[in-house]
Amino acid sequence: MDLILWRNAEAEAASDKVADSKRKLSGRGSKHAAQMAEWLKKQHLREVQVLASPARRARQTAHALGLPYDVKTQLAAGADAADLLAAAGWPDHQGTVILVSHQPALGRLAALLLSGQEADWTIKRSGVWWFSNRVRRNETQTILRAVTNL
User: Fold this and answer.
1) Is the distance from CB of 29 to CB of 57 less than 8 angstroms?
2) Which of 3, 15, 45, 66 has its CA 20 to 30 A from that of 90?
3) Which residues does residue 21 pair with via DSSP β-bridges, in sequence order?
4) pLDDT value for 142
5) 61 within 8 A of 6, measured Cβ to Cβ
6) How far is it, in rounded angstroms, from Cα 128 to Cα 45?
7) How many angstroms separate the CA atoms of 58 and 25, rounded?
8) How far apart, in whole angstroms, are the C-alpha atoms of residue 68 and residue 87?
């Protein structure tokens, strides 16, 4: 299985008039989402399933990829690493799952996958962390394949 953690791109500033979940991508955020989507397309991923937070900025980030995506409440702001793992079906899902979600859950999940413990790691806006898993000598191993930011 390949698991790609993709943090939503930059959104417009928060205001009293717009709920956090309704904030849309800024012009710069839209550009960065499109650039990261192009990078992802060049990776020739197999059997891709895209899952996005219900927040508008996450859905817009996922939309940049040009593939169908499912909105999952488990990926909403305030989620935890366990919610993200459950939504992805890690490590048993076949193919690639791209999770478009938020900090701090994405950073905590990255820490958990690499170190075995949650920690407050930061994934930059529109950044991608790509993990794979494999079984060697009856032991499941997690591999960090790529980290990229714009």
Assistant:
1) yes
2) 66
3) none
4) 94
5) yes
6) 14
7) 9
8) 16
Taking alpha carbons only, the member of 84, 79, 28, 35 closest to residue 57 is 28
Q: Which residue has the tokens 């905590």?
A: 108
Around 111, how many Cα atoms within 13 Å sit in the side-chain half-sphere? 15
- Tracing tokens 């989507």 back to the chain, one arrives at 37
| Reported confidence tier of residue 40, pLDDT bands at 50, 70, 90 | very high
- Residue 47 belongs to domain spanning: 2-148
HSE toward the beta carbon, residue 149, CA cutoff 13 A:
5
Q: What does the pLDDT read at residue 14?
A: 81
* Rg for the chain, CA atoms, rounded: 15
For residue 113, the domain's CATH number is 3.40.50.1240
Evaluate if residue 18 carries a pLDDT over 80. no
- Tell me, what's the pLDDT at 146? 97
Residue 150 burial (CB count, 10 A):
16
Query: For the chain, how many structural domains are there in total?
Result: 1
Under the banding of pLDDT at 50, 70 and 90, the label for residue 139 is confident
